[in-house]
Amino acid sequence: MLVTTARRTQQQRRDQAESALINAAAELVVEEGVHSLTLARVGQRASYSRGLVTHYFGSKQALLQRLARATQTGFVPGLDGARPGLDRLLRLIDGYIGSLALLRMTNRAFLLLWAEAATAPDLGRIFRERDEAFRADLREDVMAGIADGAIRPDVAADDVAVAVLGQLRGIGLQRLVDAPAVDTERLRRSVTEHWRRALAS
User: Is the pLDDT of residue 8 over 90?
Assistant: First the structure.
């Protein structure tokens, strides 16, 4: 009996290689910091050539941009298709803190890069863009909640967005630094309930 193996398409091979390179970059950031990150070391860690890394990303800056996007995407599962509003905002808060219980390597890398962005101009530009996208989602939820009457009309959407983002990222960094001190199961309930009481009409 002849057994055939389905051949991967060029896109599948490209996706697999890019994923391996992103994971290798995340590992290097977590283990040694962003200054250890070079295209050559990423290729070596992922068992690819430096040339392939250069072909995919072109520069360390472009690699960092891709890493920042990849590590933030999917941090809170189950929100795709959810209608904007108070419910989605509370689900995001709950899910974000819950996901900190088992931080993947890529999520660790994102939080470390975000913290380092405060003193690194190149990273700062990348993470200002990522943070603004996150705040825009949070503002959309608040504005939708105000429009449908679930959130009080006197709530300032911009202020809530800044506060929620800061709180979530701050909890994440504390989890990295001192995991036993951050009880994610208790926090996800108390923080979500805090925002429910603070915002609900």
Answer: no
Beta bridge partners of 151: 200
Cβ-contact 79, 95 below 8 angstroms: yes
Looking at this protein, which amino acid is placed at residue 86? L
> In terms of pTM, does the model score above 0.85?
no
DSSP state of 81: T
Structure tokens at 198: 């603070």
pLDDT surpassing 90 at residue 116: no
- 192 has which bridge partners? none
29 within 8 A of 109, measured Cβ to Cβ: yes
**Tokens (6 digits) for 115:** 């913290």
Quote the CA–CA distance of 8 and 3 in Å, as a whole number: 16
Rounded to whole angstroms, the Cα distance separating 109 from 49 reads 22
Contacts of 118 (CB under 8 A, 6+ apart): 124
Give the SS3 label for residue 149: coil
